[in-house]
Amino acid sequence: MQSDTIAAIATPPGVGGIGIVRVSGEAAFSIVLPLFRRPGGEQTLPPSHQLTYGRIVNPRSGEVLDEVLVAFMRRPHTYTREDVVEIQGHGGPLVLQRILRLVLEHGARLAQPGEFTLRAFLNGRLDLTQAEAVMDVISARTEAGLQLAMQQLQGRVSARLREARQTVLGVLARIEASIDFPEDDIPTPHADELRPHMLTAQRMIDELLAGAEQGRLYRHGLRTVIIGRPNVGKSSLLNALLRSERAIVTPIAGTTRDTVEEVANLRGIPLHLIDTAGITPTDDPVEQIGIQRSRAAAESADLVLLVFDCAEDFTAQDRQVCEELLRLGFGRQDKVTANGRAGRPVILVLNKIDRPRSLPLEQVRRFWPEAPLVMTSTLTGEGLSQLEETIANLVLAGRALQDDSVLVTNLRHQEALRLASQHLQAALATLEQGLPLDFVSIDLQAACHALGEITGETASADLLERIFSEFCIGK
Ligand code: GDP
Ligand code: ZN
User: Fold this and answer.
1) How many percent of the chain have pLDDT more than 90?
2) If you average pLDDT over residues 164-179, what whole number do you get?
């Protein structure tokens, strides 16, 4: 148990109906109780886990800071497994800061980002994957993303990991017993006895790895850049896609007038749509900046929607856009991964089909012989659901999320799993070569360590700090 008592504002900054100051630690009750005045003047500790009405008063000056509801929660049935006090005040930033300052003046320390959750982890209430899931639940953008985060929070991912780790530990135990006590009656286990268990662990790990790409897709979504020469309908397409999916429209801070980013919900996958000002050369210095940004956006894209105007000819600018995209390495493969590294497909969007057609298709096909092609009208809505269907097919490849899907969504977990898988493979190879079991045991230990880092059983202080520093204050 940590000895000091921490405090922070737990609700988001800004104005709200209520705001909460959270206090956790051994002295939580003794710090807050003297600051809390109930109507009858009672000074005893209210019943645990119950909201009690009163005022926060500065005991030195007698000044009333706010009218509040306070919950005193006795450990261990609390978020941190320590004594916790939550003070619900009016949701103004100033009033909450003054309450927090008063609590700090009376002996609490300002909490680090994620420190409440860190304590929950250190006190054994959550394992590391569950602690990380807390952040994923908070930042989930789609129902599917939330569902996966909840599975992780409930320990479903950890349960599978622990099973794999136990299996490896079982093999290790048998090897080590024979190494440590050779003169006793513990026989050296035969490769045939060990191999099946190692293969079982390998299969469990590989199953988790297989789902990880999909899991990360649901968690992080796809960067989808809309590209095309001016006036073909890029902005209209962006708006149409946002509308048709009853999107969670999230304005991203820092968007410029040159690129706009919004998040649409494509069957549970957050689709980060980026509208660019075009990537063709121009003399206008202001537009130049826009072009540089568009090119940067295109370079980091997982998927490109390349838009043409059906009602016009294939222009020199259309050609320049195509050439630039090919230079950036798009359209070579038709598979998408969440990190966008393996292949970055292009979907051709022939827009304005409500107007008479004059775009020669073979000109487009000369650049993109195999890219999927969809005809749309942002004016009438025609072809939009087909476009969504095409994107979904491309990225999900028929694997939609099931209600009970347990998927690894976290890159850290994915990398540790890959490491564990490599060590297991090495251990199996050593076993087949008939080398002494000490050598097998080295790789098995490394595999165990990698698996333990995911759930936190073998996580270093550095790793913990890295993970929890990404949390918000008050969580
Ligand atoms: P951007 O420069 O590529 O972003 O193009 P905009 O989305 O700003 O659209 C350019 C013009 O084309 C606007 O006047 C739109 O109303 C029009 N437009 C966009 N989509 C369509 C469409 O599907 N059909 C027709 N007829 N006009 C469209
Ligand atoms: Zn535009």
Assistant:
1) 47
2) 91
